[in-house]
Specification:
Elements (H helix, E strand, L loop, with lengths): L4 H83 L6 H26 L4 H30 L3 H32 L10
Helix pairs in contact: 1-2, 1-3, 1-4, 2-3, 3-4
């Protein structure tokens, strides 16, 4: 075979065609791998964002319950002070005592609503802790009613006060215990910076 321009062109075409096909195949495989890596990266990012959104919702629900429990505790202290001043010391007014009891009732309702919201984010064990906290708040509220009734009737108010005080102390301790458990639960799912772990 003689090397002339025609033969060189034919030889280049014979070798170049398969090389071009091979290069195209390599480009296709590289592009496919790059696209798969991009899709995987997007999926990881979306999963991370989803977990962060769930963690944030849980943290917000915990904060709502804690704020409602603290508001109930503070309004209880206010209601007992105002009611005691009115019924025992004849200071203040019936309106102030009634308003304080209404605020206590509203804060109990807010705690119950935040409890319902939190149930959407919790497992059964964690939900039971919130249920216990709300049950204790309800017991405190009912005990407050028993105590005010006893004060008004001038009968057994010391026993009613002792029960109420005991229930309130249990409730206050439960707030602290519940807050620590909530903090631990959030920390167990958080990474650096307070967000969820990927």
């Amino acid at each position: 075979m003689e090397l002339n321009a025609e033969n060189i062109t034919a030889l280049a075409a014979a070798v170049g065609g398969p090389v071009a096909v091979f290069a195209a195949w390599l480009g296709y495989r590289g592009g496919k791998a790059q696209a798969a890596a991009q899709v995987e990266g997007v999926q990881l990012q979306l999963n991370g964002e989803r977990e962060f959104a769930l963690w944030s919702a849980k943290r917000d629900a915990y904060a709502s319950v804690l704020a409602a429990a603290e508001a109930f505790r503070v309004s209880f202290n206010h209601a007992t002070r105002v009611t005691s001043m009115y019924l025992e010391e004849r200071l203040g007014s019936a309106k102030a005592a009634n308003d304080a009891e209404a605020e206590l009732r509203q804060n109990l309702q807010a705690l119950r609503l935040s409890q319902s919201s939190l149930r959407l984010s919790l497992n059964a064990t964690e939900s039971a802790r919130v249920d216990d906290l709300t049950a204790l708040a309800t017991k405190v509220f009912e005990g407050f009613g028993d105590w005010t009734d006893a004060l008004q009737q001038h009968q057994g108010d010391e026993r009613a006060w002792a029960r109420l005080k005991e229930n309130h102390e249990q409730f206050s301790t439960s707030i602290h215990d519940w807050a620590e458990a909530a903090q631990s639960a959030l920390a167990a799912t958080s990474g650096v910076g307070g967000g969820p772990r990927p």
